[in-house]
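Sample entry follows:

:::
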Amino acid sequence: MPAERTVLGVIHNVTSATRLLDVLAVFEGDPRVRVVFTCTGSSVFEDGIPEFVSAHGLFFLPWQSALREEFDLAVSTSRGGNLEDISAPLIGTPHGAGYNKKLSGNPESGIRNPESGAGVEVGAGTGTGAFGLSPEWLLHDGEVVPSAIVLSHDEQRSRLARDCPEALPYAHVVGDPCADQLDASAPFRTDYRAALGIRPEQKLLLITSTWSEHSVLGSAIDFVERALAELPYDEFRVVAAVHPNAWYAHGGFQIRQWLERARRAGLILPQPAGETWKAAICAADAFVGDHGSLSLYAAARGLPGLLAAFDEGTVAPGSPMAWLGGRLPRVDPVRPLAEQLARAVALPGAAARITSRPGRALTLLRALCYRHLNLPEPDYPVLPRPVAVPEPVAARSPLSPALYVDTRVRGREVRVSRHPAELQGRAAAHLGADVHVLADAAEPDPRLRGLADVLVARPDADPAEVFARNPDCALVVLGAGPGARRAGRLVLRGGRQFGVPADAEPALAASALLALLGEGLDPEGGFTLRAGGATSTLRLTLPGGPRAPGAGGAAGQADAGLLGPDAAQ
């Protein structure tokens, strides 16, 4: 297809590439404009770019080939590389929530020296200028490189005037397209939560981690496991949004391996190259972050938050990130995390710190781009569109996670609180004094399987065999494991059986049944079950027919005393 204008999209790494696609949305639907892409080769975080280019179907030119061509416009969302060599007017935009990173001792942390190819060490430096607003990144031989410098907020003009006054005439305040897209996505919160597997009564905690040794993963990776260990399994889900630089610097395999215990306990860990992190911000109820842009975007959505890490040395003074870091409380290593989240603060002024042109970023960006292209704008509006609903989160393993279960009985009401057993340390103040263990009958850890009072087996399993292999087990669940709601059957040692209706979770019902029997109460009259913020009235049924073959006998009678006098009747 013939095009009247050709635009060059300049990629530095996957982080800048994702924002670049946000910006290039201004050309959607216009066959007069063709977009091609290149990569400067200036970032040490180049891994993942070929996959990103392929996944999005980008027409790609090698850097040296791109430098030999002439284009009508170039758009870059970072400042690394020899951008002054591009034969086109250049529009430079930020790739995060404004300009928040302080200059390092060498120019941009994570930029490769174009002469030697060596990586630059990360360092805070002593300057006050922000990456993208200072002479190191805007001037070449005393001349301003970009034809237009995109700002998201009026306050950035003041910082630009202070640090690089020569560039001020080229500045344009247009707002933040990502913030606008998050606003447009807010009405679809329920859709995003459903896709992520979050039930209506559950809370979603978003953990955001930027890159470098001062990020959450770099300096407080244990916090991820702590969150999964302390927060009640039925009340909270946890999603971790990892910065692409960290993901691709180590490799996705390595990040997944470091977080594998947390993943087994239910951690949602999306790929960083997509937009799941945006959906997660809209779906979340609270966040724990650091000095990365996602903390600002989460705060702008009104989420209460805490900081598990924050590198003040790399945050530009007077930036929105410095403002956020001075107001959000830090995670206390001792106080219960659920209590800290309950007291976490929202920052009402965060959205106003990110953009001073809310809802208008794409409109203003399109006008800017088409002026440089010397083309009239299309006669239809360009508007922020909601984030696509992510692919549904599928179960990773057929194995049910082992859980410590704390039950409390008051009359005919049973309160159940569960926590992943694999992550519990020696000091577990969030657990009650009297807990039992629920595990899968195929649990590979013999210690947890041996401690289990309740074992979850496949629906067609023989409970007699399960009891025989596990002499300390008191109850077998035939059906789905934790989190799954479908009909099931509960078999006590001694043979007594109960049916679980299809709208209840059999594993949860099993723990409640165990608690009632332990108090000497008959469960047949129905009872109230409270777990994870949900309250239901559960009535177990009494299936007809004989007892489970071999489930009674001496073993059953011996165990009946642990459950109360009615357990084996």
The first strand starts at residue 5 and ends at 11. The radius of gyration is 28 Å. DSSP finds 22 helices and 22 strands in the chain. Confidence is low (pLDDT under 50) at residues 105-126, 545-569.
